[in-house]
Structures are given as structure tokens and as C-alpha cells.
Specification:
This protein is of the alpha+beta class. It is built from three helices and seven strands; from the N terminus they run βααββββββα. It has a single domain, classed as START domain (Alpha-D-Glucose-1,6-Bisphosphate, Chain A, domain 4, 2-Layer Sandwich). Strands 1-7-6-5-4-3-2 form a seven-stranded antiparallel beta sheet. Strand 4 and strand 5 form a beta hairpin. It is globular and about 45 Å long. Belongs to the MLP family. Pfam families: Bet_v_1. InterPro entries: Bet_v_I/MLP, MLP-like, START-like_dom_sf. It comes from Stylosanthes scabra.
Length: 157
């Protein structure tokens, strides 16, 4: 049984790609007010929520269980609307040696109605073969994407 792997989910959104990406680059502190499964988010280290030298602590609902973890941003590519995250500590470390999350907003140029898509990929390395593949995180991201999209559509200026 493989201890490392990669899983992904792609979800269509109705919001403009730039506006959606902006939530993840400049408004991440607001996730706990937008996403039902984000119970708490707080700045753990650093001076702001969006720099690579800051760490956030999250309390999330994954697979029906409340978990905690820390997250930091490894890099942001504004041009490609992508962000790389590292998840660690809390309930992640006992199960995974490595847990990287890649997020991207993809503009659909073939579509005139502004529909874009988002993609979350998780690259992980399990501590042992008894650890489950983290499909619950894909479900979490799927629901969060839809909630952010609805939030943006309901608050369009």
C-alpha cells in the first residue's frame, strides 16, 4: 500500500475568478464567517494572515469530526491565481508526515458568462499504512468553495 499520494477536486464557480481568488489572498480571516465547516481561525504566528512567514491555526469539521491544524502559505502565484499551503501540527501530524494543499482558480476563456473553476489538490505522505487517504478534506474544500461562491454572489457590488 502506498504511503504517499495526490488527490484533487475541481469545482465550477459563478463568481469572477479574480474576485474569488482575492478572498483566498486577502480575506482568509473571514472564512469562519463564510464557511459552515470552519469553526475558528486565528493568526498563530506572524503579523498578517497572508504572508508566507505567518501561521494560522484552524478548527475545522472534517469527516464529521472537529479537528485542529496549523497552516502556512508557501507561495502565491498571482498571475496563475494559485496558492500553495502547508498543513501541519494538531490533528494532521500524527497521521501525515507531509500535507501540502495546492489551490488554483482557473478562468474559463471559452465561456462568455464568466464561469470559472477552482481546483484543490492535496499531496500527502502518511505516517503508516493504517492512515486513511484524506478524502474528507476534498469534501471540505468542495463545500467551502460553494459557500465562498454563494457569499460573493450574494454580496456583489
Amino acid at each position: 500500500m502506498a504511503l504517499s499520494g495526490k488527490i484533487s477536486i475541481e469545482v465550477m464557480i459563478q463568481s469572477p475568478a479574480a474576485k474569488f481568488f482575492n478572498v483566498f489572498t486577502n480575506q482568509v480571516y473571514n472564512f469562519q464567517n463564510i464557511c459552515e465547516r470552519v469553526h475558528q481561525g486565528k493568526l498563530h504566528e506572524g503579523d498578517d494572515w497572508h504572508s508566507t512567514d505567518s501561521a494560522k491555526q484552524w478548527t475545522l469539521l472534517i469527516d464529521g469530526k472537529i479537528i485542529t491544524l496549523k497552516e502556512n502559505i508557501e507561495g502565491v502565484d498571482e498571475e496563475n491565481k494559485s496558492i500553495t499551503y502547508n498543513f501541519f501540527d494538531g490533528d494532521i501530524s500524527p497521521q501525515y508526515k507531509a500535507f501540502k494543499v495546492f489551490f488554483q482558480v482557473i478562468e474559463n476563456e471559452k465561456n462568455d458568462n464568466g464561469i470559472a473553476s477552482t481546483k484543490f489538490s492535496i499531496e500527502y505522505e502518511k505516517n503508516n499504512e493504517n492512515v486513511e487517504t484524506p478524502y474528507g478534506f476534498l469534501e471540505f474544500f468542495d463545500k467551502a468553495i460553494k459557500e465562498v461562491d454563494v457569499h460573493l454572489l450574494n454580496n456583489a457590488a
